[in-house]
Amino acid sequence: MRPNRLSRIYILICAFLLLPAAAVRAETMVVRLVVNGEPKGDIFAERTPGGDLLVRASDLAAAGLRETTDAGAEIDGEMYIVLRSMKGIGFSFDEKSLSLSLTAPPELLPVRTIDFAPRRQLRIDRPNDTSGFLNYRVGTSGGDGSRSWNAENQLGIRAGDVLFLTDSSYTKTPTDSSFVRLQSSVTRDRRETMQREVLGDVFASSGELGNAVNLGGASFSKVYRINPYFRRHPLASVSGLVAMPSDAQIYLDGMLLRTEKLPAGGFELKNLDYYGGASLVTVVIRDPFGREERLATPFYFTDALLRKGLHEYSYNAGFLREDFGIRSNHYGALAFSGFHNYGASDTVTVGFRGEGGGGMANLGGQAFLLFDAAGVVATAVSGSYDAERGGGCAGLLSYAYKDSTVGARLFVKGFSRDYAVLAREAVPGRPRYDAGAGAGYGTPRTGSISIDLGAAGTYGGPGRRTAALTYSRKIASQTYLFASYRKTRDAASYDETFIGVTYNPGHDVSLSASFAGGNGKTTETLQAQKYVPVGEGYGFRVQADRTDGGDEAGTGLNPFVQYNGQYAILTGEYRGRRFDRGESVGSYEVTASGGIATVGGAVGLSRPVTDSFGVVAVDNLAGVRVLVSNQEIGRTDAKGRVFVPTLGSYYENQVAIDDRDIPIDYAFDEVVKYVSPPLRSGSVIRFDARKFQAVTGLLSVRAGEAVRPAEFLEVRMKVAGNDIVFPTGRKGEFYLENLAPGAYRAAFDAGGKTCEFDLTVPASGEVVVDLGGIVCEMPR
User: Fold this and answer.
1) Number of H helices and number of E strands within the chain?
2) Number of folded domains in the chain?
């Protein structure tokens, strides 16, 4: 729209005051805007008789350009910018094609962000049903005329956010029997903050210079695996600028990850994750003229550090569990154990740790440092005080490096004589030092070779030195070689040698042969194995060996078989040996394990429930196939349900129904769901159906004695309080879907009058209900 006369006078004054080179504006144009070679659409522009071009500030912002001038004027409430006044931006105007081309430095254009974080589903169900399960394992073993029985169980009950777990074991031998409660706890996970609270028995560790203990008490921890898609460690990011729209190929150590189209401006690659240590992120950029630019950024991927600003901690307090696995309820002194780490930056993580109880305390600090792409250094120092032995101290220094072909490690631990940790059992000689170093090199062509050295010493005990050399390589299609040599020196000195070959003729079958020698004996072993499937099916392992020298000289046989059924896992194993001295021994073990689970009023039998589980309910439809992660789990029973024994806690499990099994008269709003259940929980996963039913008929209108079809009219009707309208076609045909049985009052207008009639839908199991002819009496 052209501005009015007052606006023209206003712009003339502004152009004179603000823009000396501009003269009176002559015309308004619609031009095609191109920024750094990328079309941005049509915009309005003002051109003055002096050749200056003015465009709206909002159009420049919409094209991604940042303003670089204050020279502008308001026209009809819109702010216009004179292009000539914009610093660093060039422009050209093609009058024939009405095309306006701007050339801007990339830093004045928007930044394109490419996020490598795992893509989350937009719609995720987070069930929180009340559920329970009971796992069991029963077995018998024997040999040499004796037999023992063993039974184990684990009970889990979830109510809302709270999970109760307890397990126990019963053993009966020819001379004794015992029942032992193992671990019992109540756990609550907070998804939003990734924090875990535990009341009851809990295993706790304060770190490298402490000790792992079993406490009966309380625990409060930051547990990042509550969100398996969250990355706690530093992630790689790369940024750069492109002057023109370009194609970008993103490589990691020469492996193509992604191809992207980049608009002119800045770009940022973020949340790039890997596990290979020192790596090289390379971005190859090609502009429209074929010119190529490479941006190479080294990065060290490690989970030893926390991302900047993140905390990771575990605080535990309670009574020391004693005689675990032997006695059910034997607790000792009150104790504590914990650690807290903080990501001061993406290259520095600092923290503290401590433990104590029963008259001792142990406290210290620790740090993890990343030196660019040169590796990770960890260091820790701790001091202890024990009421009986007094003070002590310990320190740790380690270094680790890894890339796609080379790896190296080095660590040294030192302990003073009186250094004390929580509940360490008395052993001959307290640790004095522990040190190790190793290096490795490997490529697909040459194989992998590594060397490891170790040394350990105690106060009042013998030292120990070890050296090991290992080599592995793929020597043919599906054939692998592994060899090692190990020398150990402590009170005595001995060598160990191993060489083995493995051949995989199928994806689930392997054959292997090996030789091991050392310490005065040699052993040759042959083994055939079929791996146990994840779902139903069987697997086995048969191993035979021949040993010469030593007390084990003789021939051994060890077959093992496992069958995964729908409701249980059955195993059987035999170990037999015939010694050269004439004796023979043999032992066997047979077990059965399974689970019973309940949720939503349904009870299911399955193999042991090792994580979460679910019941899929498909609206009382039988025979519908159910798939989890595209793998068929089973078909629904007569009640439309199927038990799913394996769902990953906190993961987005894809659960689907096969729509080929759904009757034609049923419709589902969705046949795929993504379910993220809490820890060790049961969930009801519902697929609700709408039963499809059509209602048809022929509508006529009677006026006096004449009856004619009510063709091409709109019929009004009220259904469940809502007004609906449906049309009639030729010969008065009408069609409605999913109209519940009942009587409805309907009406239509014809010839200036309104005709009302009753439309009655009977109850029927048919897909199409034909009401036949319906006649509406037109009022006189």
Assistant:
1) 2, 56
2) 4
